Amino acid sequence: MAIGKDIFRRNGYEVGWFSALAKVDNDEFYGFTGIDYEERLERAFAWGMDRAGVPRGVTRGKYSVEGSSIKAYKASALALIEALARKSPDGKSYGSVSFHFTLQYEEEDISITEELFGCRISGRKASLSNGADPLVDEIPITVMYAKLSTPNIQGMTLFDNRQGRY
Q: Which segments within 43-153 are labelled E, that is strand?
């Protein structure tokens, strides 16, 4: 496949929910029902004295990952919390344990990996209501940074990573 070339898919398959696999520190989880995160690179214009009112330049920006959360069936949410608690110094404090989150999507000719680094649980929202639906917990997480990999380019970042620190 050519780099940056949009291709026609064999059999019309695009990646979707059923193409995804989620891992926390290389342990697979099957009961996740949703994963959200948003990368941002906030840039600022540098204004000067110019009749045209055009900026002189722009800053490199401030990178952040916001609005991150994992939604999971109650049993899977508890399994994640227990796994992290076991890694803490006291065996109970799951909110202070850092973890690596990986999402992999596979279809016939598509392979995508999204990685979230330096993740920590920052809350837990449980809800219960009358009905036949299974219980789902929402677990907000903080994320230090994210990387995207395809067969063509490994470890792509929204931020400037020329120093190779991340």
A: 45-46, 57-58, 62-73, 99-107, 110-121, 125-126, 136-142, 145-149
